[in-house]
């Protein structure tokens, strides 16, 4: 197994793993930078082992083990957030199960149990009939162990991320703002320093740039150029860049109408919508020119590398868009998630017709324009 992994892969994963460990001991900004490597490190390791697992049962089992670790972390995050919502304390250290009301305990246990059941759905693609359904959704009948694991992981993580919204009836971050005064004060403080508040996103992006090639088999199944082609990260000509900017403007005006239509539909049925007050508080750090640039870069490049770069070629437009939408379920209610889902579908079509590079410009440009308009209108 080792002979099929190039030394540069060991160096890259070793660097990420070292940073993950160092983050627990160092202090200050270096520690923050290192701690942001945890999800990228897991993604890189799972990707490398999954590709090795095409010919090695041991590597395949190791990849599933690491995926279970990632799913367990997601379950813990769900439960921890729910605990901070229902408890009076400002952080996990102040939370006491004994002081919780019976209804709050029941809710907390329910979120834990439902999240665990959602995690178990990662095993469903191991059944042949589920892969048949996956073939219908993705339009691809060839299912390798890598694609089976990707389907299971994406399906399970999407469900886990949606559990708090379903159980609470509101986005968990909004509930945190409404019920946890400590969180609200912290968010207000960091929001006054846009670059400081968003530095975690910038650090995470750095690690994602390192992990994305490993997630598609760099050094195991593909060389560097093949990885870039697989990710859809191609060099654009000046004309293509101008066309992408024009496409960004078109998408912006199109989604003004789409969002209005969604608002009317949700209003007609009296369905709960995303609270503007909490939305503005959550994204206060982006309400500046610096914040708009950081949001455009981190969301445009980071999210597109993962969803349209890594996942879409494996799972198709629909499933990658579901995952893309679920990634935003901590902040948005179902109305905004529908808009994100449709946005993901459009970006998926753009990826199919052009490249991930174009998607990066469209997504990043769209988020930048939204943040700048919001900033200039205040």
Structural summary, described in words:
The chain is mostly helical and 378 residues long. The protein has helices spanning 7-22, 28-35, 38-52, 57-86, 102-120, 128-138, 145-168, 172-179, 181-191, 194-197, 199-215, 224-231, 238-269, 276-282, 289-326, 334-353, 356-376. It has one domain. It has 17 helices and no strands. The longest helix has 38 residues, at 289-326. The radius of gyration is 21 Å and the shape is globular.
Can you summarize this structure?
The chain is mainly α. The protein is built from 17 helices and no strands.
Instruction: Assess the beta-strand content as a share of residues.
Output: under 5%
- Quick one: how many beta strands? 0
Overall radius of gyration:
21 Å
Order of helices and strands: HHHHHHHHHHHHHHHHH
Give the SSE layout.
Layout: H1 7-22, H2 28-35, H3 38-52, H4 57-86, H5 102-120, H6 128-138, H7 145-168, H8 172-179, H9 181-191, H10 194-197, H11 199-215, H12 224-231, H13 238-269, H14 276-282, H15 289-326, H16 334-353, H17 356-376
Looking at this protein, list some descriptive labels.
17 helices; mainly alpha; 378 residues; globular; 0% strand
